[in-house]
Design a protein that fits this description.
By secondary structure, this protein is mainly alpha-helical. 71% of the residues lie in helices and 0% in strands. It starts with a helix and ends in a 13-residue tail after the last helix. The relative contact order is 0.10.
């Protein structure tokens, strides 16, 4: 199943580059990331578990969530498939 997701994501990105170039790919990935952040905020799961102060927890959570989303989308790193991590 992970392999099918990787192949599908790669084909979609290849097709988007052919249709609209890199700008379209960045727009689609940006929209996907925005929906992911909105989903995390609605579920009240946006702040990551790291024990940081309020001024650093939001930027650190944002960085961790972006990196985890990109890694889980483009690799078969199964440890990131935990329900409390990416989904």
């Amino acid at each position: 199943m992970c392999f099918c997701q990787l192949v599908g994501k790669s084909i979609v990105i290849g097709l988007l580059i052919q249709i609209g170039g890199k700008a379209l790919v960045l727009q689609v990935m940006g929209c996907e990331m925005a929906v992911y952040f909105l989903y995390k905020i609605i579920r009240r799961d946006f702040r990551y578990w790291l024990p940081l102060g309020p001024s650093t927890s939001i930027p650190a959570s944002m960085l961790v969530r972006v990196v985890q989303k990109i890694l889980s989308d483009f690799t078969c790193f199964l440890h990131l498939r935990h329900p409390l991590e990416v989904s």
